[in-house]
Amino acid sequence: MNYLEIANHYLLFIFAGAIILFIFIQTFWFMKKAWKQALSLGVSRDTLINTVKTSISISILPSIPIVLALFVLVPVLGLPTPWLRLSVIGSAPFEMLAADMGAKAVGAESLGGAGFDGTAFAAALLLMTIGGSLPLLLCVLFNKHISSTYEKFKARDANWMQVLSGASLMALIATLMIEYLGHGIIAALTVLTSCIFALLISVLGQKEHLSWLKNFSLALSIIFGMISAIFYTSIFS
Questions:
Q1: Quick check: 194 and 221 in contact, CB under 8 A?
Q2: Which of 46, 145, 155, 164 has the highest local Cβ count within 10 Å?
Q3: Which residue from 196, 178, 198 is spatially nearest to 187, judged by alpha carbons?
């Protein structure tokens, strides 16, 4: 049996749909409670409607990278699991990274690459699930202590904490990137081109009339990276 028959099994659609439906119900229940509370506090109905409209509009742009990630994951992992992961708790970069690491851990070349079979599919899903669930437990147990420690150091030197946070993020990104730089000239050039393009968007986004570009940074970098990969493949292969 092809593993995609399991990945797209109707039972997985039922499980994923039930969880997503529960999230929708929970979300609308909280919205209803918040709406009533706001009216009781004297907030006008027009203000609430405008707030909802603004929230919807600013939520569309950050969702573009998630949709792109869904298109990437569905052909390899089927529809139910990526649909569930990217709808509830997962993030686009994490899900793709975790699935790729899980596949490689059992001998597959990469996510969807040579050797990706039912075992690799199960390993990918297992790593995605554990990786996405563990931070929730860690937040419950340690978030208060970590936050209080962070605030203490921030009170001493806020500028240094900002530099340290930025450096930590860059170190994490560099760690994730370095593997792909060693996958040949096409992969290396694609990564570097995407980084340069993301930097360009960041610089342009500093200008007031182009500040909207910041919301598209990840999505545009992914799209431009895909285009550059096609271009480099046509040259070097």
A1: yes
A2: 164
A3: 178
pLDDT tens figures, 109-130 = 888 778 888 888 889 888 888 8
Are residues 109 and 17 part of one domain? yes
The answer on 217 and 123 residing in a single domain is no
pLDDT digit string, tens, across residues 65-111: 778 788 888 888 889 988 888 887 767 777 888 888 888 888 888 88
Alpha-carbon span 30 to 41, nearest angstrom? 16
* Residue-range definition of the domain harbouring residue 186: 157-237
Those residues whose C-beta lies under 8 Å from the C-beta of residue 127, and which sit 6 or more positions away, are 98, 99, 101, 102, 105
Query: Last residue of a domain, which of 156, 187, 214?
Result: 156
Q: How far apart are CA 176 and CA 140, in angstroms?
A: 26
Domain count, the chain: 2
For the chain, the helix, strand and coil percentages under 3-state DSSP, each to the nearest 5: 85, 0, 15
Tell me if 76 sits within 8 A of 112, measured CB to CB. yes
Where does a domain end: 103, 121, 156? Answer: 156
Give the Cα separation of 67 and 101 in Å (integer).
21
